[in-house]
Design goal:
The complex is a heterotrimer. Chain A is an alpha/beta fold. Chain A has helices at about 45-55, 75-85, 90-95, 100-110, 115-130, 145-155, 175-185, 200-205, 220-225, 230-235; strands at about 5-15, 20-30, 35-40, 60-65, 70, 85, 160-165, 190-195, 205-210, 215-220. A 6-stranded mixed beta sheet of chain A has the order 6-7-8-3-9-10, with helices on both faces. The relative contact order of chain B is 0.11. Classes of the chains: A alpha/beta, B mainly alpha, C mainly alpha.
Chain lengths: ~240, ~210, ~220
């Protein structure tokens, strides 16, 4: 694995909310292949806003975002969205189709794959998240933990090169949280995870970026970030 | 209204349940059409329709009482409009009245059976076959998907409000509070719709609604 | 106000279906141009919202309870075309799943409540809103339109019953209109409170409020 290959390259990114407040200021971030980068910081610091730039949902006022060398612009959006699998915080936002099968197949159909390939990938993805018996179920009957797993499957089936997750363990009960952490640890796919769950982040991630008021105030390996007691105290991470 | 009654009996198994949704739709919709178009005094036809429906109902294992209760839903309209007909229509008022009531009841019977033996999602797929534009099918599908979530949010807000109400307030305040809850629900629903849209885009949605043709 | 099957004659419910289908087709075209690919999720969730809102029991008097119809609420918040679609979708699901309103009569019910009621109400709302201006115009417009929409929709229903030969106009119209003039008061009150709330918290979500609509 070429550890220097830049999967995500963000340079000088500025973004303002529609009402004018600054959301991201001068953000620079490089994520290399195989990295698991934690995005830390208080609520409202801009973590989610940053994640939404990674698959082109938001585009900055200035600065650039490159995914696997591709500039995130209108032309490249379909390819970018195949490479970046974004898992949102609330699974109910991601499960919008009538059945579990339909939800997992949604992205695959948009990719233009053959029906047989789609069926195979759906079944593989569901097996991967341990929900193989669920394709015909309707999502509103599922428990929160089950929904979280299915929403992960909807993204994994597309075989992304980068997994971007917003609070993946939020609201999960201890058992499901442990399973989720094990699962994430097992995959060597490049990951970017915004989270308040420090323990999870410590066990999965190798790098961390600390956000505050739209700026990255620190970006380094986990050891260096969590070795810096002053830093942790200033941003409420201790 | 109880949302759990959608699909309440759709998971049972019977010869009727197993019929393909499109055929069920043609059958039950067709029955409604026939009933509505039948002449007012064709009592034999009504008896035949009723018998056919009854036989189907028995085979479907749906509790007849539940169907009967649904048919009673026609009563308010009957009381408001139909019941006056015999009074101002001296010639054939009773005939008109009875045909209206019979037709209304038979139609409800037919539609109740259809939805009791067919899951809503299958119903939508079947309606698609009737050339209803895909965009409406999708809108209804999304509506169905998020209905229970929103109803749940509504109930949670109602419960929260109730637990904060110490004194019995007058009706006006209750109406105001409930209306505010509706306002909250609107804003939350709108924001949810936007997030769902983003999630769709993240999985490659470009405006074209595609489905896997089974 | 959901007419069951059997009350209308073919000379009424067939044209009503045709007009409603044409109207909805036009509405979806207009909405798609505006919302583009956001159409399906937004319309779907909004239809669920109206449906859920209609389920609330509002205490009226002496133990009875009433419900919001939501036609004008839908058009004030979402605009005339989107509002009409949302109401039509709600009516369709009510017909299919709850047998609230007949199948052959669905065309007429959609015509009455989506077009006469909701879109007609929007015209009244828009005139008053522009006449008075500002938030006050929105509130007063909502109140007047909500009341009028209920009365107009029920009057249209009465006309259809008369044309069908079910009940003469001189009987059906007073019966429907008078009852709904009362119902309209509740509808107006609830709609105003909801719209006021949205004006306070997210005024950008009110359709055509100010320079930019919410759908950017």
């Amino acid at each position: 694995m070429n550890r220097d290959e830049k999967m995500i390259e963000i340079k000088d990114l500025f973004y303002k909310y529609p009402d004018g407040t600054n959301a991201l200021e001068d953000v620079n971030l490089d994520v290399c292949k195989g990295d698991s980068v934690a995005i830390l910081g208080p609520n409202g610091a801009g973590k989610t806003t940053l994640l939404l730039h990674m698959n082109g949902i938001l585009s900055g006022r200035s600065g650039l975002v490159n995914i696997c060398g591709l500039a995130v612009n209108k032309e490249n959006l379909p390819k970018v969205r195949e490479k970046v699998g974004l898992v949102f915080q609330d699974p109910d936002d991601q499960l919008f189709m009538p059945t579990v099968f339909d939800d997992v197949a949604f992205g695959l159909i948009n990719m233009g794959l053959e029906p047989d390939e789609i069926r195979r990938r759906v079944s593989d993805a569901l097996k991967l998240v341990d929900m193989a018996d669920y394709p015909e179920r309707t999502s509103h009957h599922l428990s929160y933990g089950e929904k979280k797993r299915i929403s992960l499957a909807t993204v994994l089936c597309m075989d992304p090169e980068i997994l971007v997750m917003d609070e993946p363990t939020g609201n999960l009960d201890p058992r499901h949280r442990k399973e989720f952490i094990c699962f994430l640890k097992d995959t060597d796919i490049t990951k970017v995870i915004a989270s308040h769950d420090i323990d999870m982040v410590l066990s999965i991630c190798n790098k961390a970026a600390v956000f505050d008021k739209g700026r990255i105030v620190a970006f380094d390996t986990m050891d260096k970030i969590f070795g810096d007691k002053e830093l942790l105290k200033n941003y409420g991470l201790d | 209204m109880n949302h759990s009654y959608i699909d309440k009996y759709a998971d049972l198994d019977s010869p009727i349940h197993r019929i393909h949704p499109r055929i069920k739709i043609i059958l039950f919709f067709g029955l409604v059409l026939c009933v509505t178009l039948t002449g007012r005094t064709a009592y034999l036809s009504f008896v035949i329709y009723g018998t056919v429906l009854f036989i189907i109902a028995v085979f479907s294992k749906i509790p007849l009482l539940a169907i009967f209760k649904k048919i009673l839903a026609v009563i308010p309209f009957v009381v408001l409009i139909a019941v006056f007909i015999p009074f101002f229509n001296k010639e054939n008022g009773w005939i008109v009245f009875s045909s209206i009531v019979i037709k209304a009841c038979l139609s409800i019977f037919s539609m109740t059976l259809l939805t009791s033996v067919t899951k809503f999602t299958s119903l939508l797929k079947g309606i698609e076959g009737l050339k209803v534009p895909k965009i409406f099918i999708m809108i209804m599908s999304f509506m169905y998907r998020y209905l229970f979530l929103l109803i749940g949010e509504l109930q949670r807000m109602q419960r929260a409000k109730e637990s904060r109400t110490l004194l019995k307030t007058n009706n006006l305040n209750v109406i105001k509070t409930l209306s505010n809850i509706i306002g909250v629900l609107f804003v939350r629903s709108y924001e949810r719709a936007e997030r769902v849209y983003l999630a769709m885009c993240s999985r490659g949605f470009d405006g074209e609604i595609r489905t896997l043709d089974e | 106000m959901h007419i069951p099957d059997g009350f209308l004659a073919a000379n009424t419910w067939v044209p009503a279906w045709i007009v409603s289908m044409g109207g909805l087709g036009y509405c979806i075209k207009r909405v798609s141009v505006f919302l583009k690919d956001k159409t399906v999720p937004l319309m779907g969730v909004m239809a669920a919202f109206i449906f859920a809102a209609q389920m609330l029991n509002f205490p009226v008097a002496a133990g009875t309870s009433g419900h919001l119809l939501g036609g004008v609420l839908a058009v004030v918040l979402l605009g005339p075309y989107a509002g009409a679609i949302v109401i039509a979708v709600v009516l369709a699901v009510q017909c299919l799943v709850f047998q609230d309103g007949g199948l052959t009569a669905l065309g007429a019910n959609i015509f009455n409540m989506s077009f006469i009621g909701a879109m007609g109400g929007y015209i009244i709302y828009n005139v008053i809103k522009n006449l008075i201006g500002g938030n006050k115009g929105i509130i007063i417009g909502t109140a007047a339109a909500a009341w009028a929409s209920v009365v107009l929709a029920s009057s249209a229903c009465a006309v259809e019953l008369a044309v069908s030969g079910t009940s003469p106009l001189r009987i059906a119209l007073p019966a429907m209109a008078l009852v709904h003039m009362l119902i309209g008061i509740g509808e107006a009150f609830i709609s105003v409170v909801v719209v006021s709330f949205v004006l306070k918290t997210r005024p950008d979500l009110i359709y055509n409020n100010g320079e930019e609509a919410a759908y950017e």
